[in-house]
Amino acid sequence: MKLRVKIFNVEIGELRSVVNVEDAEKIGVTTRDRVKISAEGGHVVTLVSITNSREVSGPGEIGVFADVLKRVSLEDGDEVDVTYVPPPPSVSLIKKKMAGGRLTSEEVEAIIRDAYEGFLSDVELTAFILALEYRGMDVDEVESLTKAMASVGNRLDFGDSLVVDKHGIGGVPGTSKDSLIIVPIVASAGLLIPKTSSRAIMSPAGTADTMEVLAPVDLTAEEIVEITKRVGGVIAWTASANLSPVDSVFIERVEYPLSVDPESLIYASIMSKKYAAGIRRLLLDIPVGPEAKVESMRDARRIGRNMADLGERLGIHTEVAISYGGQPVGRCVGPALEAREALEILASGGKGSRSIVEKAVALAGILLEMGGVAPIGYGEKAARSILESRKAYQKMREIIEAQGGDPDVKPEDIPVGEYKETINAPTSGYVAAVSNKTIVRIARAAGAPRDKGAGVRIFAKRGDRVEAGQPLLEIYAESPAKLQNALEVARASPPIRIEGMVLEVIRERSLIRGF
Amino acid sequence: MKLRVKIFNVEIGELRSVVNVEDAEKIGVTTRDRVKISAEGGHVVTLVSITNSREVSGPGEIGVFADVLKRVSLEDGDEVDVTYVPPPPSVSLIKKKMAGGRLTSEEVEAIIRDAYEGFLSDVELTAFILALEYRGMDVDEVESLTKAMASVGNRLDFGDSLVVDKHGIGGVPGTSKDSLIIVPIVASAGLLIPKTSSRAIMSPAGTADTMEVLAPVDLTAEEIVEITKRVGGVIAWTASANLSPVDSVFIERVEYPLSVDPESLIYASIMSKKYAAGIRRLLLDIPVGPEAKVESMRDARRIGRNMADLGERLGIHTEVAISYGGQPVGRCVGPALEAREALEILASGGKGSRSIVEKAVALAGILLEMGGVAPIGYGEKAARSILESRKAYQKMREIIEAQGGDPDVKPEDIPVGEYKETINAPTSGYVAAVSNKTIVRIARAAGAPRDKGAGVRIFAKRGDRVEAGQPLLEIYAESPAKLQNALEVARASPPIRIEGMVLEVIRERSLIRGF
Lengths: 515, 515
Prior knowledge:
The structure is a homodimer of 515-residue chains. By secondary structure, chain A is α/β, with parallel strands linked by helices. Helix content of chain A is 40%, strand content 20%. Among the domains of chain A are: 2-85, Barwin-like endoglucanases (Beta Barrel), CATH 2.40.40; 87-156 and 242-272, Transferase, Pyrimidine Nucleoside Phosphorylase, Chain A, domain 3, CATH 1.20.970; 415-499, Pyrimidine nucleoside phosphorylase-like, C-terminal domain (Aldehyde Oxidoreductase, domain 3). In chain A, the strands form five sheets. Chain A has a six-stranded mixed beta barrel. A four-stranded mixed beta sheet of chain A has the order 7-10-11-19, sandwiched between helices. Chain A has a four-stranded antiparallel beta sheet with strand order 12-15-17-13, sandwiched between helices.
């Protein structure tokens, strides 16, 4: 039927319009059905809400939210034709998956396209993600999902160059700085490494958040390709390059609010971005330990094997390193503190916390071997020499400059939170555990990752001997209130546990290559 | 922080507000987090959307949708205090259920209360329903769910009277008229039967839609109690009495869009309404057959046993009748056609299609026995005598009048769709099947249940002999376009299948009492 447009100038994150209950009956729609709005300039399909209020949408009117205007040009008072349309085919495909069915690649593509275009409601999108959680996907479906997710965004094209990358599964605080050491080492060795990564969602610092302390990370796809070709490496934000953009739709709308992370989507999320970024050789780092994202070696091996299989199907040769993730990596957590720690290690030629230096050198070494610029068994040595000779530092300065940052920045110039408080050891003994989850909670309560200067500096790691009254950690915040918040978290659940003796042998670093 | 209110005068079905990205960072919220808005007159918690547009919500402003104004009084320009609040505890309880945990009665209550109050987002509500679908609930949890759902709406109070009711599981077209025959028989026998029922969601006619042809059904809780006490029975709409209102929230927001119907929620949905309506003895009718909601006797017995167990826990003595649901019941489908058919049967003292007359008499008879007004084994006879003596017709006239309808309405006075078309048998033979699903689709395409006069009249049922060219069914619609829609459905998938011979013995009616 013919209705007059009434624009609600607000975005709600869904394509939605509002009609009066009288017109709804005539059109034959009920709340959450869909209507097609046909105007002179084109048409759009929206979900429909129904109102009793003549003030909101009276008979003869159709209210449209601002999201709709991105799809079709409409103005207040425009006459449009409004008809019922059935849900898009992807909705019945989601129902198929909910019932445990297997999706073909065309079917997966249809769902991903509609999710990306905003054609699916929150309810439908949630049903899709939870169907993946409860019903799972086989490897063919995951391959389809990965390719479909990559296909709706940009693709980086490096021609025939051997492009490598490293990706960490995460969940361990302090790991956002890994890439700030690994990327310049690998780029120094002549390989191309366009490292794209996300901002923190649940953690106190994502690689993009930490790099942003040194240089802008919101680069376009073209800038990433250009800089990588010119200086060998880049550390950029995935979202600004629009690589596999539907992933963040899933995360923001469903996964983050519900704290769900279906395994098939973990694979597709990582690999779709690497596939879109044109990566040919990928090293996947899976930290394992209590309170890491992956808690058992068994799970790590399964995930690693699945990722390698998936990589093979995508033409991305994938190796997996299982690393020690039982406590924070390095001594700093939070964007500015981690950026500072990484820069100190680079500038000093490898001086710093062994847990980060050794991990970065080992992973970079594997990448040099995978990229064919170091013989098998000699990658780590080559990586260490690049770090110690300060070639990596020089390369990092080039990368910072190429991305628009200040290459001359000194670690001590990096501003950190001016409000700080030290927590001391209540008793003498050996450190039995440093809790990943509690350190994360403290750093986030202090304001990280939004407040770049917020975070935690850790003075005692697992196995260290401490005396009563000796500092265990220091909390940094940008406001007194947030410092208080963080202190309250730390007091309620102490992040560092001290025992009278060492209870078991500690492996400070356990790096298993392959699986 | 302090913000100025900007009202968006439109309801979106969620409590939601919109802040500018600059303020969001200061408040420390991201999209789909929650904020507490504190004003002079009180406070409210809403989900928050974040906008880049200064036109929508500039820095210093907070846009609020009309839904929010129902919770707290706000006007354009009001200064309010806006702070981050964590998700309500019910969100982590939903996550607990998603992970397969068992919910206590307090935990179930918290979820139901928040769902009813509108505190849960579509994403969270979907997660709850799908957790019930995939994880299930044990009988203790279902009891908690039932009581919690009943507790957020009205409760009907009949004192010490013996209040009985009958509920059909549905899924078979033509069953909306059952109650129009059963209720007056049972009320004539001196029992109280306050039948509340829903409108159609997926079917062409709910009991409330069909009764509405004869009298208003949107009665308040007080009216239902008063009429039932006065004339013995009522046939009203559950929603207007506000019995277990959260059920329709689940249906409208999640179950209908996704076509899901978790078994635990089927139990809780039915029994919460009966519990809230003060029912003491309940007869549950489960039609079984191909294309019915319940397709196997095994499922019917399991569902019946679970309902009886649940009833016992609620103090509602529940018996179960498993009836034949392999084809439509009676000869008419659609609100006006079914109201007419029921009234014809009542006015004629029981003349009409055996499949509806015998079913109604059998179910009413069981209720008379359950209510203690007929000896065991004699209920059906007593019910038949009430129907044949036209006492039931007289009682129905009283009920219609009490609800505000015209007691003198004649079946032939009831208006049905003026556009109609007959479909004839393409060949001679025996009717092998009448498809429930196709009859539903035809009747809905013809406009039912919104168009009361739309529907289908069926001339040949399973086992009947038909000759080529003889009418099989007649489609009624209120507009030529809808008649065309219905004819297209009927042509694409013929609803009545004719075979040259009877393939198997037909049981026209198979009523099993108990289980």
